[in-house]
């Protein structure tokens, strides 16, 4: 195979891997609270768990999504009992998000879930050294930069 054919094959493999990861992320999962949640919902709750009562706009910036997406997700998770939306005491125009006890429990459950997943992936990639993994990380960063930069 010549270099361009190898690049084409590599990019095809990247595309199919990205699709597989996207499908994995978009599959609902059951957590201890026995709710079926999508990874986007869980990651939203996790983002709140790492902050002290963030505003809706702070969450939008943190997750790199629109304020409208944050509003929709917050409403959905409030109905499910994971978050509470409150008006800021300093600025009534601003909405603050806070985790409920159920939301805090989900954070703990997801930390354990992530650890199991990371151990599983680590076992599947045991033939790769730490240096190899660092090379793969740089590769992924380079590919992302190539496809997100202006030409």
Give the arrangement of secondary structure elements.
Elements: H1 3-25, E1 29-30, E2 36-37, H2 39-49, H3 56-63, H4 67-79, E3 83-87, E4 95-99, H5 101-124, H6 130-148
Helix pairs in contact: 2-5, 3-4
Write a concise synopsis of the structure shown:
The chain is mostly helical. The protein has 6 helices and 4 strands.
Written description of the protein model:
This protein has 151 residues and is mainly α. It has one domain (28-148): Orthogonal Bundle (Arc Repressor Mutant, subunit A), CATH 1.10.10. The protein contains six helices and four strands; from the N terminus they run H-E-E-H-H-H-E-E-H-H. The strands form two sheets. Strands 1-2 form a two-stranded antiparallel sheet. It has a two-stranded antiparallel sheet with strand order 3-4. A hairpin with a 5-residue loop joins strand 1 and strand 2. Helix 2 packs across helix 5 and helix 3 (56-63) packs across helix 4. It is globular, with a radius of gyration of 19 Å. It starts with a helix and ends with a helix.
- Proportion of residues in extended strands: 5-15%
CATH superfamily: Winged helix-like DNA-binding domain superfamily/Winged helix DNA-binding domain
Q: Major beta sheet, specifics?
A: 2 strands, antiparallel
- Number of separate domains: 1
List how many beta strands DSSP finds. 4
What level of helicity do the residues show?
55-70%
Nearest-integer average pLDDT: 92
Q: Tell me, what's the shape? A: globular
Radius of gyration: 19 Å
End-to-end CA span: 27 Å
**Tally of separate helices:** 6
What's the CATH architecture name?
A: Orthogonal Bundle
Question: Per CATH, what is the topology?
Answer: Arc Repressor Mutant, subunit A
Q: Could you say which structural class the secondary elements and strand pairing correspond to?
A: mainly alpha
Strand order of the largest sheet: 1-2
């Amino acid at each position: 195979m010549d270099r361009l054919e190898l690049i084409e094959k590599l990019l095809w493999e990247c595309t199919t891997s990205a699709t597989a990861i996207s499908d994995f992320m978009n599959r609902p999962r059951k957590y201890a609270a026995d709710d079926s949640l999508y990874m986007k919902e869980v990651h939203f709750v996790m983002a709140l768990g790492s902050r002290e009562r963030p505003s809706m706009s702070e969450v939008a910036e943190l997750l790199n999504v629109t304020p409208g997406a944050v509003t929709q997700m917050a409403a959905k998770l409030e109905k499910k009992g994971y978050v509470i939306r409150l008006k800021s005491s300093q600025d009534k125009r601003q909405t603050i998000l806070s985790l409920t006890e159920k939301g805090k429990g989900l954070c703990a459950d997801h930390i354990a879930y992530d650890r199991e997943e990371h151990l599983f992936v680590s076992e599947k990639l045991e033939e790769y050294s730490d240096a190899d993994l660092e090379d793969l990380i740089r590769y992924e960063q380079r590919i992302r930069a190539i496809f997100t930069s202006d030409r």
